[in-house]
Specification:
The complex is a heterodimer of chains A (400) and B (425). Chain A has 400 residues and is an alpha/beta fold. Helices cover 35% and strands 19% of the residues of chain A. Chain A is built from 15 helices and 13 strands. Classes of the chains: A alpha/beta (400), B alpha/beta (425). The interface between A and B is large, with 88 and 88 residues. β5 of chain A pairs antiparallel with β6 of chain B, so a sheet runs across the interface.
Chain lengths: 400, 425
């Protein structure tokens, strides 16, 4: 591998897509669900909080060893499953030669806690029953030894390596929504420059977690009461946590052509920013500043956003989107909920899928902000603005 | 120094600023003095009760405190201290205006026990379930917990404080994280994306649950008394690693950019490599191929032959498995040349700074090149007869050192190596 500074950037194709979510698994199921405008929410189990539960999935299909499944918590199973779908879709599943040099960048949070252990300790403490060694003793006796490995951020990548044999390089980025924007950005830059030929990039999120609801409830970010589509939340803002895993196989055109792989689309550009949000309008300005870097060719294009429904960021993003009134916008948060690290890869995946199917999926928005679009998309912009920080954009294009 | 490009035609990546904090002290000078004197920073934990724990010592950084106390807060402060030192030395950019991106190796973040217990008490009940906890969490009472326990919070704080450019990257490759942060910086400069990068590894996570977690995996030494003698890399009676805290920071620049502004060049990151082990979540592939491949990739990336490496700053955790595997794989890569390479593990003195280790040890490797003196592996009283390294045992050794390989291996099959040199190769 060489990575000469002066060489022209190599074209990068999306040759594999794996999605599992509240709407099902695989590309056909998602395409159908989006066209049927299906939404899968759960408003009882965590009431008054709303989540998008994972659709029933037979994990055996991608994680054949029960022992492997047992070593993982749900977020890792979801991610390992989606990664397997992506490798299948790219036609490299089981290809040890390619997998042995496939670079992996996973965007990850952490794994679920043992809520029963936590609650028992918290209750004892609240009763005043906890001496100096109480916490240590309970943790030593009650935690499952391997739970740590199901919680560690880099062990989603670790499990993908073990189960699927992806074993070139392995990097895990953390930091909520921004982590996956940067994962895509760095993977693209590495392939464009010749530092890498092929990469697996993605994330996974389990929205059915009380401990995550607590974390976001600290900042009053959770949607409560009645489910509404993302653009209808101005008076009851918040996100409904979603469950999804999404992975992409990115590959240099040359590498893909050499093995006869077909592209879904081309990943042309990924840009990222960290706006200092203390000033009102910072997100709008950040998105405005990134837009010209993409290479958008038209005033009436297509845009898929991971808008959260949380304020003020959603309104700031909307102010930016209104500057491009000719664009057909789709908010994945409406259908999938908010899947944190997974939202940006999901946007990339749906953009590539739409391009490959020759149509943007229909709007799902009673406010009328999202409009119908008939013609086959050749460019789709993907936008991400994190619920508390981190902004990014990508351009996905049809391969010429 | 001659060519601004390396053997593969890429921009040469140099180091122009370094900072370090460990249990031995703050700053390069303190650390180097105590490191080469063979002092240990490991002590019995006093930050929290150790009753009921199997391992009661660690390399905590007790001279830095944060309020409110949290591991993530300490992690952030340690990174800040190391970065301040690195930036002062590099004299790059202006105050709060670093001219490049941030790559941060940081421990995964989560809500910690003091905060969790406060939450339980806030339910106002003595018998409660998670629904009660959830209902007590909102309304702004614990608003600051949200930011504190976001994974991106440490990087975001550093990016704002030091004015790094673009989206800062927080990463984890477990015990290899610090090396990966440096590797990402090197790659960005080689791509021509940046003239400078700030690469930091930080870890302040010695807390009860962290100790318990590693303890339950039987990874930690339980030789608590005396704590200074617990970490015994390459010894027959080694029984695990010692958790520790610290941070290492490096300012990387392209050689061109550093020369253009007249910066002092402290060393060169000549090569980086990584290779994933897909064998097991915590154990290395028995044939050692991924580690062997990782070291060979790093040599190839640097354009060096094994014979050109004259010191190895080992991962050397002092777990029974790591040290044996590290020796077996290194022996394959270096062959007949291995006996001529002095090997040492900084972890014998500072413990295992986990997410920071790769960065901390890269700083120590560059100090080794600067001083032409190799810090010892202390507690080396009973050499493991199966590990035939030329261990720099117990006392520092003066040596001619031109190229150091620094190794990091972690849970999840993470292997990363760096080659650091004094001059461009």
């Amino acid at each position: 591998m060489t990575d000469l500074k002066s060489a022209a950037p190599r074209e990068v194709w999306i040759t594999g897509i794996g999605i599992v979510s509240s709407l099902g698994e695989g590309l056909d199921a998602h395409w159908d669900a989006l066209n049927e405008k299906r939404i899968n929410t759960e408003d009882q189990r965590f009431a008054p909080y709303i989540v998008h539960p994972l659709a029933p999935v037979s994990f055996d299909a991608q994680i054949p060893k029960k022992g492997d499944q047992r070593q993982m918590e749900a977020w890792q199973r979801i991610g390992t499953y989606a990664a397997g779908l992506a490798l299948d879709s790219a036609g490299i599943k089981g290809n040890a030669e390619i997998l042995g040099r496939t670079d992996m960048i996973v965007a990850a949070g952490g794994g679920e806690r043992d809520l029963a252990v936590d609650l028992a300790i918290m209750n004892a403490d609240a009763k005043g029953n906890s001496g100096p060694g109480f916490l240590n003793e309970r943790l030593m006796n009650d935690l499952r030894p391997t739970l740590f490995l199901a919680q560690l951020s880099n062990l989603l990548a670790g499990n993908i390596a073990i189960v699927h044999g992806v074993s070139g390089t392995s990097r895990t980025f953390m930091g909520e929504e921004a982590a996956s924007i940067d994962a895509a950005r760095i993977a693209l830059a590495r392939i464009e420059s010749g530092q890498s030929d092929i990469a697996l990039v993605g994330a996974a999120h389990n929205g059915e977690r009380s401990d995550l609801l607590v974390l976001y409830e600290f900042g009053d970010f959770n949607l409560t009461g009645k489910y509404t589509p993302v653009w209808q939340r101005e008076n009851n803002s918040g996100f409904a946590l979603g469950s999804a895993g999404c992975f992409l196989v990115l590959e240099s055109r040359k590498h893909a052509e050499a093995r006869g792989a077909k592209p879904y689309a081309k990943l042309t550009k990924v840009v990222a920013d960290l706006a200092q949000r203390k000033q009102p309008g910072a997100v709008t300005r950040s998105l405005q500043a990134m837009w010209p870097k993409l290479g958008v060719l038209t005033d009436n294009g297509n845009l898929i956003t991971g808008a959260t429904g949380v304020e003020p960021v959603t309104s700031e993003e909307k102010a930016f989107l209104k500057q491009h009134p000719g664009f057909a916008v789709r908010a994945t948060g409406t259908m999938f909920g908010h899947t944190l690290e997974t939202q940006f890869p999901l946007g990339l995946a749906l953009a590539a899928l739409s391009i490959s199917r020759g149509a943007l999926f229909p709007p799902n928005d009673p406010t009328g902000f999202e409009v119908e679009k008939q013609d086959a998309p050749t460019q789709i912009v993907v936008v991400g603005a994190g619920h508390w920080q981190g902004e990014g954009m990508a351009l996905v294009e049809a391969v010429k | 120094m001659s060519a601004p490009r390396d053997k593969l035609g890429r921009p040469i990546v140099v180091v122009t600023g370094m900072g370090v904090v460990t249990s031995l002290g703050a700053g390069k000078q303190d650390n180097w003095t105590r490191l080469t004197a063979g002092e240990s920073g490991i002590r019995t934990v006093t930050r929290f009760p150790v009753d009921g724990l199997k391992t009661t010592m660690a390399g905590t950084v007790d001279f830095v405190t944060v309020n409110p106390a949290s591991s993530t807060g300490l992690t952030e402060r340690l990174a800040e201290l190391a970065t301040e030192e690195a930036l002062e030395q590099a004299a790059i950019g202006t105050k709060a205006n670093f001219p490049g991106p941030l790559f941060l190796a940081v421990a995964p973040v989560e809500v910690e026990w003091p905060q969790r217990l406060a939450l339980g008490r806030a339910t106002g009940k003595t018998e409660f379930d998670y629904g009660d906890v959830l209902r007590a969490s909102g309304g702004g009472k614990f608003g600051e917990f949200h930011h504190r326990f976001m994974f991106g919070s440490v990087a975001s704080h550093l990016a704002e404080t030091f004015g790094t450019k673009g989206s800062p990257i927080s990463l984890s490759t477990a015990c290899a994280s610090g090396a990966t942060a440096i590797q990402l910086g090197v790659e960005a400069i080689r791509r021509g994306e940046a003239d400078a990068a700030l690469c930091v590894g930080t870890d302040g996570s010695v807390n009860p649950e962290a100790l318990v977690r590693f303890s339950l995996l039987s990874a930690l030494s339980t030789q608590n008394d005396p704590p200074q003698a617990a970490s015994k890399p390459f010894s027959k009676n080694r029984d695990g690693f010692v958790m520790a805290e610290g941070a290492g920071a490096m300012v990387l620049e392209s050689y061109d950019s550093a020369m253009a502004r007249g910066a002092t060049i402290l060393g060169v990151v000549a090569g980086c490599g990584e290779l994933t082990d897909s064998f097991h979540r915590t154990r290395s592939s028995p044939d050692g191929k991924p580690i062997i491949g990782c070291m060979r990739k790093t040599l190839a990336d640097a354009g060096l032959e094994p014979e050109q490496i004259d010191h190895i700053n080992a991962h050397g955790t002092a777990t029974p498995e790591n040290d044996k595997m590290e020796y077996n794989t290194t022996a394959v890569v270096f062959g007949d040349h291995l006996p001529k390479i002095p090997v040492s593990s900084n972890k014998s003195m500072v413990g295992h700074t986990i997410s920071a280790a790769g960065a901390v040890e890269a700083v120590f490797s560059l100090l080794t090149l600067e001083h032409q003196r190799i810090p010892p592996t202390i507690n080396y009283q009973v050499p493991d007869p199966a590990i035939l390294f030329d261990v720099v045992g117990n006392t520092a050794r003066d040596a001619r050192v031109t190229a150091v390989m620094s190794n990091s291996f972690g849970f999840g099959g993470q292997n990363a190596s760096l080659i650091l040199t004094r001059e461009p190769v």
